[in-house]
Amino acid sequence: MIKAELFGVCPLTTAQELLTGKWTLLILYLLSKETLRFNELHRKLPVLTQTTLSNN
């Protein structure tokens, strides 16, 4: 099967596709600790541009 066919069917493939990106795990970690609005999250990650943060 092709990876695209497994998206939504296989939990492992779906997670791999959704959790790609350099900053995704750090963003998820911060959001798991507390609820943050976009600007609050941006203040905690000043190295990220707003564009990069909104793409993740």
Brief characterization of the structure:
By secondary structure, the protein is mostly helical. 62% of the residues lie in helices and 0% in strands.
Mean pLDDT: 85
> Main β-sheet: number of strands, strand sense, barrel status?
none
Overall 3D shape: elongated
Q: Specify the number of helices.
A: 5
Distance between the termini: 27 Å
Rg from alpha-carbon coordinates? 14 Å
- Sheet/helix structural class: mainly alpha
Strand content: under 5%
Task: Please provide the count of β strands.
Answer: 0
The topology string of helices and strands comes to HHHHH
Residue windows where pLDDT falls under 50 for at least 5 positions: none
Helical content stands at: 55-70%
Structural notes for this entry:
The two termini are 27 Å apart. The longest helix is centred in the middle third of the chain and has 10 residues, at 24-33. The protein has helices at 3-6, 11-18, 24-33, 38-44, 50-55. It has a domain at 21-56. Helix content is 62%, strand content 0%.
SSE blueprint:
Layout: H1 3-6, H2 11-18, H3 24-33, H4 38-44, H5 50-55
List keywords for this structure.
56 residues, mainly alpha, 5 helices, HTH_HxlR, transcription regulation, WH_DNA-bd_sf, WH-like_DNA-bd_sf, transcription
